[in-house]
Model the fold of this input.
Amino acid sequence: MRRRDFLYGATAVSGMVPMAGAAVDVASIKSRGTKKVDLVYKSPHATPNGLQATSEGLWVVDQGKENWVSLINFADGKVIREFQVPGLAGASGLTVDPDGVMWINDTHNSLIVTCSAKDGKILAKYWCPGSGRTYQVPGDPAPARSPIASPFPAPAGAPAGGRGRGPSRPAGQVALDATTGLSGEGGQGMEWRDGLLYYACLPSRRAYVLDPKTWRVQAMWNLPGNRAHGVGWEGDSLWIADSNWRAFFRHDRKTGDIVEKIQLTDKDPLIHGATVHDGYMWFSDDVGYICNFKL
Done:
């Protein structure tokens, strides 16, 4: 059997979508209209990069070097409990499964880490499908930065104008002493549904539907850009944010197709972590704020 026949045959049996598709035409996607974004409150720590709504409250994972994970009240942002997860590098996105296991995308380490949602004790680590270096294609928006000043003091040694990205080099070039060209970014926003993990991944420009028991990718959805971030369920559709597009894109769960978008402006907070709760989209700007708007 040819490999192509096998892939499409497997798709037909599983009911999942094909593994690849055409590039996304953002201009053709129907828009839900403009939204009034509110800065709801300051985050528990300075660089909130992932959110997850639960019945207990709102989980916030911070990408700072202290690796704080905080459970806060939706109403006032007060901390219910929090802990630190050692060894994370740029955590971005988390979810909690029905067994109380927390899954965290450890982005800069290209890992997915599980820990106890009670105390942060690490249970297991996994490699992240789709990891690698991000890249651009014609038509991508320029890299976006938050227009909002952080309410937290800048970290010691931070460069003027924001966090540094390392020395500037010609496109595609790596350092002369590099030993690999494949290290890079892993997954971002993450959700759980019916025993499967759904997460967005920057470098592959795709979302993945992953069976955590077999570690097999069940489906991949094409994304419109190279900076996918937070995700959140609205019924049977999954919103996936893109920071550079400054937009949320709603994907049909069965096909992966984008059926709608919500476009923010360059004056709105920059989208990082995201989750849906009680008819609102909640998202974090990693300068230190938790925001929302009514869907």
Remarks:
- Confidence is low (pLDDT under 50) at residues 1-15.
- The longest strand covers residues 187-193.
- The chain has one domain: 33-132+182-294.
- The longest helix spans residues 3-14.
